[in-house]
């Protein structure tokens, strides 16, 4: 058998993921500040990052594209901000990430990890509101995902010096 220069021929399909990182975030909270900086830093370090407005082809439906990107990613960086739980899409992404048992790297952006874990503080009213709109059974799945991710040791950013924090963790 002739040796090939193309590593993809000898690499099992399971190891040929399209994305290194799926970036989950609440757009109105972090898109134009922290998440942009994080995305650009990862991208400039040759990390293949899926961000909802970059990884989809024109005409793609939002939900299937996002769910496919989660499945086709090695890990997820989840930026949990104060309004994260107000978005059904964010919570659906989080639940799917947890169900697929992806490596999760949480960033607690101006929130306390224990509030994420217990759905208290800035999350309490949003989660209760979603229970009324979507039903307790569906929201239980989202609560379980928040509890799991809130229990993972991650990065906590409570001040405005986020650009310096990213550099300190070796991404500059």
Keywords:
Rossmann fold; alpha/beta; 48% helix; 172 residues; 5-stranded parallel sheet
Describe this entry's structure for a reader.
It is built from seven helices and five strands; from the N terminus they run βαβαβαβαααβα. By secondary structure, the protein is α/β, with parallel strands linked by helices. It has one domain (16-171): Toll/interleukin-1 receptor homology (TIR) domain (Rossmann fold). The radius of gyration is 17 Å and the shape is globular. α1 (27-44) links the parallel β1 and β2 (49-50). InterPro entries: TIR_dom (IPR000157), Toll_tir_struct_dom_sf (IPR035897). Residues 17-172 form the TIR domain. It holds the Pfam family TIR. This is Transmembrane receptor.
Task: Reconstruct the topology from this structure.
Layout: E1 19-25, H1 27-44, E2 49-50, H2 62-71, E3 73-80, H3 88-99, E4 103-109, H4 113-118, H5 124-134, H6 136-150, E5 155-157, H7 162-171
Parallel strand pairs: 1-2, 1-3, 3-4, 4-5
Q: Rounded to an integer, what's the Rg over CA atoms? A: 17 Å
Return the structural class.
alpha/beta
Outline the biggest β-sheet: 5 strands, parallel
- Which class in CATH terms? Alpha Beta
Number of distinct helices: 7
- CATH architecture tag: 3-Layer(aba) Sandwich
Instruction: Report the CATH superfamily.
Output: Toll/interleukin-1 receptor homology (TIR) domain
CATH topology: Rossmann fold
Keywords: Membrane, NAD, Receptor, Transmembrane
InterPro entries: TIR_dom, Toll_tir_struct_dom_sf
Protein name: Transmembrane receptor
Organism: Forsythia ovata
């Amino acid at each position: 058998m002739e040796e090939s220069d193309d590593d993809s021929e000898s690499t099992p399909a399971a190891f040929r993921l399209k994305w290194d990182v799926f970036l989950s975030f609440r757009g109105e909270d972090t898109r134009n500040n922290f998440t942009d900086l994080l995305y650009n830093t990862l991208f400039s370090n040759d990390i293949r990052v899926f961000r909802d407005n970059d990884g989809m082809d024109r005409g793609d439906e939002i939900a299937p594209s996002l769910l496919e990107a989660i499945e086709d990613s090695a890990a997820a960086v989840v930026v949990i901000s104060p309004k994260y739980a107000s978005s059904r899409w964010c919570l659906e992404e989080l639940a799917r990430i947890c169900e697929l048992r992806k490596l999760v790297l949480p960033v607690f952006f101006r929130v306390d990890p224990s509030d994420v874990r217990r759905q208290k503080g800035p999350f309490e009213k949003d989660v209760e509101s979603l229970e009324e709109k979507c039903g307790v059974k569906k929201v239980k799945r989202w609560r379980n995902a928040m509890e799991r991710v809130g229990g993972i040791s991650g990065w906590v950013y409570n001040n405005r010096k986020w650009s310096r924090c990213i550099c300190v963790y070796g991404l500059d």
